[in-house]
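Continuing the series of single-chain predictions for the mutant panel. This is the parent chain; the variants come on the following pages.
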Amino acid sequence: MILVVLLKFFGWVLAILPETVVRGVCSLAGDLIFYIPTRRQAALLSNLHHAFPEKSESWRRSIGRESCRRLVETSLFVLASPYFDEKRWRRVLKFPDSTMEFIEELRRENKGGIALVPHLTAMEALAAAPLFIEGEGEYTFGAIYRPFDNKNLDRWVRQTRERFGLRLLSRKKGFREAQAIIRKAGWVGVLFDQNAGDRGALIHFFNRVASATELPAILCRKFNVPAAVAFTRRKAFWRVELHLQLLDSENTREGVTLAANEWLEDHLKSSDEACADWLWLHKRWKTQDNPRRRLRLEQKKSYLEEQLQKDGLSEHPRRTRFWIRMPNWLGDVVMALPLLQAIRAGRPEAEITVLAGKGFLPLLEKLVFVDRVIPLPEKSGGWQYFQFFRKLKIQYPDTFLILTNSLRGDLEAFLTGCPQRFGMLRPGKWRPLLTHSWKLPPDLNESKVHQTRVWEQYLKHFGLQEPLNLEPIFKGRNSTQSATIKIGLICGTENQPDKRWPVERWRDLIEQLLEHEKNLKFVLFGTDNDRPIAELVARGLPGELVENLAGKTDLTCFLDRLRECRLLVGNDTGGIHLANAMGVPTVVVYGPTNPLRTRPVFEAPVIIMQPPGCPPEGGLPIVETAVERVAEAVLRLLKTDNEDA
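Parent structure:
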């Protein structure tokens, strides 16, 4: 009761104050809402950036600021308007000639319908519309509304809105009365531009998935009446015109729902004035934000495919922004690629942006399921490194998936201002900068589960349902027939010297293979750090038999030269994973590291070599792996590859 009394008093004060004073209050309060950093402010700017990515940041901020001012203007109008007399109402609300002509035509046809109402400035002025409808006969208006839990507040709202003849119809019990109004050639208004949650139907609104209410369409279909948009056009402070526009659509759920939202989108694009008039603070697009369902589109009803077909599009517009922080090592990056494919399949309307080291750009830019690549700055940059991520804040990512396990990666995501930051939480780790985390189950033994499958469980926690596609990604090995068989060798590793098979073993392998196959040529691959090892392996061997490319190729060249190889032999290192992703048969020499966790993941021929008696998860010195066994594995793969060819 106290709340209602306070609202009545405040409304009465607003009604008697000079409008210049109230306008100043609206400007001040609107600016406070806009400039004070809150989640709502972030949502406002994010909504505008998603809807108008082609506009400048200054334009979006100008629209956002004015939208906040008009939000306050509308809110205070709701409180003050119950105390307006009829004379003042006729100053506030105007019916242009086009609106009166529209109404008269409907009256002559004795036809009622559904009025779709968007959240524009002073939309509450529509409650006074019966004042302006003159003439003989009864002409009734109703509006579907959600009753307030506070009964005193609900009673006051009904009294103030219904004093000119409008009937407020509860969403719970008012449909019978709505039917009676329509049968009398009256009109029933329905707000249609809010997030409809799980009960709504999925549509594209500003090229971004949203949930739209089907209620207006259901009423049109049920009563076989037309739909029109009833909207206010602001002319000055607390001065609006009422416009009516018949909706050009089929009288179906799909037709009315899509047409109404397309009309609104076109209206907001029509001018800056119209754009600023809408409630951009509203979280219209949050329907698919549930963290546990984030990586899949899930709704009982969807018009997305119908809308694509109608618009002549073959794929979804991608405005939902998923950013993925990739691992720091090449092997881990390659093992994560099936996850990116699955995310694309589960959220086809999401724009997938990966953040990764600059060296991985030639690889990641070739992926059809990655839309953007943001190269990471050098870590030696000090504070400038983190400033880089803070500057990304104005790109407004929606969800940040972190595939690293460091506080640095979490801080990177936090600085972008992304509202959803997902990561894995291992026992004993502390990751306070995440908004949501997946705790590794106590019974999950990571030493016996492949890293890709661990990541898969992590993403399933956040809604991923698509199976992993493990077919090689970079297909297209060189099929040119040649008498010379090229075998790639990676003799070094970027880290962990104990993962390297000794130089003598590599030289012995070359000699043994040449004894069995005279038409072999060996190509040594590796990074600049691998150059000394590769030089020792190649020393004294004829150049026509051994070509040393270690430190001489970038990632693009490495991919091209790998296509020439019939197979690749290497230590547990990133290049092996890349060859596997290309479908190149591989022989991998393991020792201390764990192939159960880090073996190549794609479905291409792979033979894992470990020292005799080595546990499946590794742990023995790599030097104990015999050359003869590796040579036998290579010859076996060559024979199989020849038979397949």
